[in-house]
Design brief:
The complex is a heterodimer of chains A (397) and B (319). Chain A is 76% helix and 0% strand. With 397 residues, chain A is an all-alpha fold. Helices cover 68% and strands 0% of the residues of chain B. The chains are: A mainly alpha (397), B mainly alpha (319).
Chain lengths: 397, 319
């Protein structure tokens, strides 16, 4: 282990050249293997051929023939592909780094080596960020200002800010942002304060926290079931309408009445996000110095006054951090509306679902891009506040 | 905090202090914090009742789903799931048929494999690239370092939606739609700024003495990174790994756009969404399907909760 930590001894000229060639060969080999594997993954018949080859090589030609004639079962074909994909994805990235680092040592002189190495470290990340974030962002801004003939236009933005269906989407987004953020933050901070110093604090928190592990799509199924509706007189299998009819009212088709349906969807988001808020608030509340609390107690402050006048002002920064983070998550809400509102029907449309429709159903990339830019413009100031605040706070506490 | 202990050979004088401050910053739940705990009995009955009520309300939706998924199709359609609680031990009202039906006939098994194949590399690749980059930004002098880092952090503001139109066009042109590779790389690209931000904060804070003594001993940047920094950064790597894992496993938008809903490649969320679209009122299928999609993140989450909380507290907020 220590020998690799130390710089290698200077070798003779011939040896050095040979090592350089070998190292470059290794890099080329790794790239070739990865390239071949990627080709393997997109070819549906490849797993079968590989298994047959392997069986032939180990001499089990009768089994090889059997597979060649009958084919693999779907499950084993699937697992075979999965195994190859996992190996390529996980081992491949490290093999590339290690081989390239060796090559730098073997090929370059002392000086150049340390000039090039940082780029091996940051290069791959920078390249992917450039391809997946910088290039598309510029492309989207450009697309949003261009009409189908390629000329400059503001019509996509005009549409976004004037069309009645868009105004509805904006109204819904505002409802989402205000109620969703407020709901998660208020319940989160309230629960964190209530549960603080309770005997089974960690357990109680886990229950609130658990929905964070559930996907938006999964949560949508869970809540669609709760809101499900049967005509009056039939047994209600949805929890909400069972309660409503149990109290003697008519069952409510929650998901098809606007704006009730949007509120019902916001509840799902609050259910998902409150745990996140609660965890961070809980840590913040615990970091309020005990001297301050004790002093206030001695001055005769009750629990509620203590919370409103001492604790809340002291965790103001955290409230800002959590609030902005949830705000941004909600601004981009898509899955819940897509799955529960059946693609934004019944007036549940929000900006992100509308963007998706413009993109895939109407193929209007200009409009879709304009909507994305609007999201970006709203996110920027909020995110700047968030990052600044995280930096100042030492994050989270 | 054994993962934080540096190798004995390079014990620097200040490492003890540094270690404890790192540990303190990352301690889960901040239990045993600065304030002496109050005797539990002092909390009023009202508070405890309220906490119980909220915890109950929060759990009820998931419990209803799980119970329903184990009931026969006919029963789900005609009576509420809570009715089974009257006679919970009457075995005839429980069944696993819904699970075998969604796994075998509704493509959830294939989707499960696809989710695994997408999620593991889409977690390992970004975390590896980000760790290399974070190390270089923190510990190697090179021209343009500050500017590049500022750009990476600035890109945290870009919403996913900003990238979809050009990327989709690019993917169609390069035949990357519907491929594992394309989806791994997409998740990597989108996750990198947050990963670099998180890992940088931690790696830049590592004790200078440890790294410098390694360099003096002749360690190259590569070996210092793999043998020192990676082990030292294990807690934050674990925290980010859990985030990214949950994020990718639960993602719908990226998978839906770049992988699609074809049975060969669709992941669990996409398959479940399909099921809602085609069998919207077949609750025996939907509840079982939803639970199949939830079980892995729930287990990961419950097992790794400490790391997850640590990650949240160090700013791992995925926007």
């Amino acid at each position: 282990m220590t020998s690799t930590l130390l710089e290698r001894q200077p070798a003779s000229h011939v040896l050095q050249v040979a090592r350089g060639v070998v190292a470059l060969g290794v890099v080329a080999g790794v790239v070739a293997v990865l390239w071949a594997s990627v080709g393997f993954l997109v070819d549906p018949g490849a797993t079968e051929r590989l298994v047959i080859r392997v069986l032939e090589l180990v001499g089990a030609s009768s089994s090889a023939e059997a597979i060649a004639s009958r084919g693999l079962t779907p499950i084993s074909r699937r697992l075979g592909t999965a195994a190859v994909a996992l190996t390529v994805g996980v081992v491949g990235v490290w093999a590339l780094f290690i081989a390239a680092n060796r090559a730098i040592d073997a090929v370059l002189g002392h000086r150049l080596r340390e000039k090039v190495r940082p780029w091996l470290f940051v290069g791959p990340a920078i390249a992917l960020i450039g391809l997946y974030l910088v290039y598309p962002t510029i492309g989207t801004i450009h697309e949003s200002l261009t009409d189908r003939e390629g000329a400059f236009t503001l019509s996509h933005y005009r549409f976004a800010f004037t069309d009645a269906s868009m105004l509805l989407a904006f109204r819904n987004n505002v409802l989402w942002l205000v109620l969703g953020t407020l709901g998660s933050v208020v319940i989160g901070v309230g629960f964190a304060a209530l549960v603080d110093r309770l005997k089974r604090e960690a357990l109680a928190k886990t229950f609130i926290f658990l929905p964070l592990a559930i996907s938006f799509v999964g949560a949508s199924v869970i809540w669609r079931f709760i809101y499900s509706w049967q005509p009056a007189g039939r047994p209600q299998t949805g929890l909400l309408n069972a309660i409503v009819t149990g109290l003697g009212f008519e069952p409510i088709p929650v998901l098809s009445l606007s704006p009730l349906n949007t509120l019902a969807l916001i509840v799902v988001m609050i259910w998902l996000q409150t745990g996140f808020a609660m965890v961070i608030f809980s840590a913040a509340i615990k970091s309020v110095p005990s001297e301050v609390i004790e002093a206030a107690r001695i001055d005769g402050a009750g629990e509620l006054t203590l919370f409103m006048r001492i604790v809340l002002p002291m965790i103001r920064g955290t409230i800002l951090t959590v609030g902005t983070a949830i705000f941004i998550a909600i601004l981009k809400v898509f899955d819940i509306v897509w799955v529960m509102g059946r693609g934004g029907n019944f007036e549940t449309e929000v900006i992100a679902t509308r963007m998706f429709k413009e993109m895939f159903q109407f193929q209007n990339f200009g409009r879709a891009s304009a909507l994305a830019v609007i999201l970006l413009v709203v996110v920027i100031p909020v995110m700047v506040v968030n990052i600044r605040n995280m930096h100042r706070q030492g994050v989270g506490a | 905090m054994t993962a934080l202990a540096p190798p004995e050979t390079i014990e620097a004088p200040t490492s003890e202090r540094r270690r404890s401050s790192l540990a303190g910053r990352l301690s889960p739940w901040n239990d045993g914090g600065r304030r002496p705990p109050k005797a539990p009995g002092q909390r009023s009955l009202l508070v405890r009742a309220l906490v119980l009520l909220i915890a109950f309300t929060w759990t009820l939706p998931t419990a209803g789903l799980l119970i329903s998924s184990l009931r026969p199709a006919g029963a789900i359609a005609t009576s509420g799931w809570w009715t089974v609680l009257i006679h919970p031990f009457e075995m005839s009202q429980w069944t696993l048929a819904n699970y075998s039906s969604v796994l075998a006939d509704r493509g959830m098994f294939d989707a499960f494999i696809n989710s695994v194949v997408i999620t593991i590399p889409a977690t390992v690749i970004p975390i590896s690239l980000a760790a290399f980059a974070a190390y270089a930004f923190a510990w190697i002098e090179f021209p343009g370092r500050k500017l590049l880092f500022a750009i990476v952090i600035g890109l945290l503001v870009v919403p996913l939606q900003m990238t979809l139109v050009p990327l989709l066009q690019l993917y169609v042109e390069w035949n990357l739609t519907g491929t594992y590779l394309g989806t791994w790389l997409a998740h990597t690209g989108f996750g990198l700024p947050m990963a670099i931000f998180l890992l940088y904060n931690y790696i830049a804070d590592l004790p200078k003495e440890i790294l410098e003594s390694a360099y003096v001993d002749g360690a190259s940047h590569f070996s210092a990174f793999t043998k020192l920094v990676l082990p030292l950064a294990a807690p934050v790597l674990a925290a980010f790994a859990i985030f990214q894992f949950l994020w990718v496993w639960n993602d719908f938008l990226v998978a839906y756009i770049f992988l699609g809903t074809g049975s060969e490649v669709a992941v669990l969320t996409a398959q479940l969404q399909q099921l809602v679209g085609t069998r919207g009122e077949d609750w025996h299928l939907l509840t079982a399907g939803a639970f199949v999609s939830m079980v892995v993140p729930l287990v990961v989450f419950l097992a790794m909760q400490r790391y997850f909380v640590r990650g949240l507290l160090t700013g791992g907020v995925k926007g």
